[in-house]
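Shipment paperwork, digital attachment
Item: protein structure file
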Amino acid sequence: MPPSLSPQSSADRVCAYFREVLPDPRSELHYHTPYELLLAVVLSAQCTDVRVNKLTPALFERFPDPQALAAATPEEILPYIASCSYPNAKANYLAGIGKCLINDFKGAVPATREELESLPGVGRKSASVVLANAFHIPAFAVDTHVHRVAARLGLTHNARTPEETERQVTALIPREEWWRAHHWLILHGRYTCLARRPKCTACPFEAWCPKIGLVE
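Attachment content:
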């Protein structure tokens, strides 16, 4: 990294670029309601959004609301999600989520981190995605793409966990832009800054990117 380019300078450059070219980023998961987003996010763990989007239309039609999901067994849910990763575990998660939403939250998806993380299969990252996208509450979700890209661009230093990446990046970016920054970094990681064969020559940050931990 050039000596004059601090993590804050790197963050400022990244955000300035994306504000111009992608001012209104959106999740690539398909959903219409907080309930649908919650289910899609749980299914997306260690699975691509493309795969999740292929199976959720039938899932949402069969279980259109928490009431329908709460009445289902994991065995009834399984055929609708069999093509995603870890379908047996996720069928159990979804069945549990349905029951929790009805029994604990009056059939509504909760809008606080603590309550979301009390649901089966929902960790910090998933809760952050729901908070930011469904409720427009400032949150910065860190997945493998975000963790990798933030490190390569010099936004983080020796961040060994998603929580540490979150702490360092959110210190550099205005709170109201956390949700946008999540989408910017995840999309950059999916389509340009790939894990194994990054497309550096197509990257708008190539001239100054320190390429920390880069794997060609």
